[in-house]
Amino acid sequence: MSDDSELLKGRCLFIPQMGANSTRAFVAAFQSAGIEASSVPPSDNRTLELSGRHISGDECFPLRVVLGDFLKVVEDLGPDRVAFFIPTTCGPCRFGQYSQYLKKVLQKLGYDGVPVLSPSSSNGYDGITVGTGIFMRTCWRAIIASDVIHRMLLRIRPYERNPGESDAVYAHCLDDLCRVLKRSGIGTRTQGGMLTASLKRSRDRLRSIPVIRKKLPLIGVVGEIFCRLNEFSNQDIIRRIESQGAECWLSGITEWLAYSNLGQRENLITAGKKFSPAMGKAWIKSWIQHRDERALLEPFRRDLPEEADLDDILERSRPYLPHHGVIGEMVLNVGKAIYLWEKGARGIVDISPFSCMNGIVSQAVYPRVSDEHDGIPVRVFYFDQSRKDLEQDISIFMDLVRTYMRRKESRIRVQQLSR
Question: Which of 129, 146, 176 is the last residue of a domain?
Answer without folding.
Answer: 129
